[in-house]
Amino acid sequence: MGAAAPFCWMRREKISTMESSSFAVAIMAAGKGTRLKSKRPKVLHEVGGRALLLHVISAAETVAPAKEIFCIIGHEADRVRAAVEATGVQFVLQADQRGTGHALQVLKAEFELSGVPIPKHLLVLSGDVPLIRPETLAELTRFHLAEQAAMTILTAVPPDPTGYGRVLRIAPQSSEVSAIVEQKSLSTDQLNTPEINSGIYCFETAALFNRLDQLSTNNAHGEYYLTDVAGLLVADGQRVVAIQAESVDEVLGANTIAEMMHLDAFMRASTSRRLMSQGVTIFRPETCIIDSQVEVGADTVIEPFTQLLGSTRIGSDCRIRSYSVIQNSTLADDVTIRNGCILDGAEVSNAAVIGPYSHLRPESRIGEGAHVGNFCETKKTTLGRGAKANHLTYLGDASIGEGTNIGAGVITCNYDGVHKHVTHIGDRSFIGSDSTLVAPLTIGSGAYVAAGSCITQDVPDDALALGRAHQVTKEAWAARRRGSQPPAKKA
Ligand code: UD1
Ligand code: CA
Q1: Mutate to test the pocket of ligand 1, among 7, 27, 28 (most ligand atoms within 8 A of CB)
Q2: Active-site residues: which are they?
Q3: pLDDT digits over 184-227, tens only?
Q4: What domain range is 309 assigned to?
Q5: Alpha-carbon distance 453 to 441, whole Å?
């Protein structure tokens, strides 16, 4: 997206299919997030293990299809677009970020330029208000239509409203609003106004677009405030109403890292509650870090200080012991993960036992009932059903058959400094302790490798391979040595 092409519709031809009663969605996500003091754009900061903007897009998708969701991006636009474009939403570039009102001015200009009919109603979401629930958006859009309002503001009454814009109702019990006043513009009388603007609104799109040119930057931030549209509409006799969200927490914004972590804790607590309501036992859930997308089956037990991250899926009747970190991994049923394991991109089959202190790296596939034990590392390795690697082993780029036993300290030497090589081991073989298996290598089924071997050549089925020096034993050698030395001093 260059300066010469300020906007960018994607799949333009489909926009015109919008029904007149339906909503399009605009997500304001162009801001820098100066108050975060971070190099990362604000909307790509994560809560519950997922970028703020992805949470907001998921909520938006419950109101409109992706092609009718317009993401207004600006600060680090390419980075933001790359992070969310798989969702199929459309992007509009706000090259200079001159306020939330300006963000909507850019969207309006985009509609005019493209000649696409404007949607009848527009739901506007803030990219930094990620906890908003689909149920609340459904209620907001329903209320907006029922009230036949030009603008409907989603509000809340938090314990401390400081920092938020305040919503002034024409009378305490009235749904009608006279204006939104930003924190820095509040008069002394207005400072006690408890009801905050969530930054989430419905508009009759034409009413909004007709007022955007009247916004000014004559305010504390020198920005075009979208919130000023409320007063402009009221001045024109248009209906502006407000509806309070059921829970305060879902409309909390994240302007600082501390606020971000508050939302993160909130989201993780609700993820734990969701899993527990589905029959999962989580001991001391406040000590666990569980990302919002994680799924866990009933009767699985999660011990304290566990992390379940990314797209992790865990089956039923598993036990995840303390201090394990499981990321983007799939565990079937009855799996035991003992203390202190790290799993990343691993697949573990039914009734397998992992750990303590195992590291399963990407493309590790652990078969049914297999064991990977103390201080073992696997990478791009398949372990067959019932196979065992119980102690101090590295298995990389390997396939290991059913029932094979890998002794303590066995190492696949898979890397020659330039290339990676593969090791195949058949079924029911026995690899003696402390053997080094120099890949590329194939060891057949039912084969034995003697302990302490360095194996460089293939071993056929049912063979025994010894790859170690013969032992030399010198009788009485030690006694002779002692005899030739002066007697040891007494301590
Ligand atoms: C805004 C509201 C405030 C409300 C609060 C709720 C205004 C003027 N104020 O304040 O009443 O209580 O949200 O959280 O709207 N953005 C753009 N382009 C811009 C500027 C901002 O896309 O030029 C985006 C930001 O990326 C952000 C959202 O708009 O996702 C809100 O902007 P922000 O600067 O955080 O507004 P607040 O000060 O929080
Ligand atoms: Ca904000």
Answers
A1: 28
A2: 391
A3: 999 999 999 999 999 999 999 999 999 999 999 999 999 999 99
A4: 257-465
A5: 14
